[in-house]
């Protein structure tokens, strides 16, 4: 059976980076504090992930200000709504990813006057916070969204991290809605990690890792957009490293809760 995700999983450097990320997540999931306070750690991860995702989208703010409710930036508010929805959207993501993506976009830009919320864009106008250049045409968006949806609902032997990285990469490349696409793409990656069992309680925040890695995020997604095997492998390895860093950040949160 043709399994594109499995092919990506075998690209040079990918198996090693995915294994390292899996080890970091497993170490997090084994922390003793999670037996009684996993909901608190998950909530903290959601907050940290939302703040980091908004920063990647061009809306930086301090964690303290976001935690205190002092930030009214629409992107940050959208990121918080998206992050809070992940648990409830996971079942939909499993069987109807396009429906979940539409809902994520509505949450990301709620309050906008646009009548196209949750609908793929019909023009070449699209925000470009990562400076990727001209976006794909609406017809290309429709075709590739359909292909991505089919792939996501087809069984694969590839690890969850690989599927999550490809889903995020495709959505960042397509910019399917024209606004807040990065918030949607990074949420889709986390939904994949939840649904496919790597991080079922959404404790790790890969977005935190992406921010920590700095300009490597943009470099890696540009490599993915190139479409070359080495570029795709670079992107997947980057996402794995970001996930490992997110898991280590959550592990530090666990330790902080232990001391309270």
Average residue pLDDT: 96
- The tally of beta strands, per DSSP, is 0
What's the CATH H-level superfamily name?
A: Fido-like domain
User: Residue ranges: pLDDT <50 for 5 or more in a row?
Assistant: none
What is the CATH class name?
A: Mainly Alpha
Q: Give helix and strand order, one letter per element, not per position.
A: HHHHHHHHHHHH
Give the N-to-C terminal Cα separation: 52 Å
CATH architecture: Orthogonal Bundle
Q: Look up the CATH topology.
A: Fic-like fold
The profile of the biggest β sheet is: none
What count of domains describes the coordinates?
Answer: 1
Approximate strand percentage: under 5%
Number of helices: 12
InterPro entries: Fido (IPR003812), Fido-like_dom_sf (IPR036597)
Domain Fido: 96-238
Protein name: Oxidoreductase
What keyword list fits this structure?
260 residues, mainly alpha, Fic-like fold, Fido, Fido-like_dom_sf, Oxidoreductase
Give an overview of the whole structure.
This protein has 260 residues and is an all-alpha fold. The longest helix is centred in the C-terminal third of the chain and has 31 residues. It contains 12 helices and no strands. 68% of the residues lie in helices and 0% in strands. It has one domain: Fic-like fold (Orthogonal Bundle).
């Amino acid at each position: 059976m043709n399994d594109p995700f499995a092919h990506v999983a075998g690209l040079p450097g990918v198996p090693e980076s995915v294994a390292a990320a899996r080890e970091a997540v497993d170490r997090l999931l084994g922390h003793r504090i999670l037996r009684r306070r996993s909901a608190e750690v998950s909530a903290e991860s959601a907050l940290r992930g939302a703040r980091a995702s908004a920063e990647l989208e061009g809306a930086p703010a301090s964690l303290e200000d976001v935690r205190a409710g002092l930030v009214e930036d629409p992107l940050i508010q959208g990121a918080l709504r998206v992050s809070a929805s992940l648990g409830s959207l996971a079942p939909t993501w499993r069987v109807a990813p396009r429906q979940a993506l539409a809902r994520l976009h509505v949450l990301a830009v709620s309050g906008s006057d646009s009548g196209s919320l949750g609908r793929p864009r019909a023009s070449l106008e699209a925000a470009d916070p990562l400076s990727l250049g001209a976006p794909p045409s609406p017809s290309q968006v429709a075709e590739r969204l359909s292909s991505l949806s089919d792939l996501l609902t087809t069984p694969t032997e590839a690890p969850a991290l690989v599927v999550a990285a490809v889903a995020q990469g495709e959505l960042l490349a397509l910019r399917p809605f024209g606004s807040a696409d990065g918030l949607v793409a990074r949420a889709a990656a986390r939904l994949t990690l939840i649904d496919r069992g790597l991080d079922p309680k959404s404790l790790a925040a890969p977005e935190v890792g992406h921010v920590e890695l700095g300009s490597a995020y943009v470099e890696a997604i540009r490599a993915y957009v190139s479409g070359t095997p080495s570029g795709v492998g670079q992107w997947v390895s980057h996402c794995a490293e970001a996930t490992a860093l997110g898991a280590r950040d959550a592990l530090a949160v666990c330790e902080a809760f232990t001391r309270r």
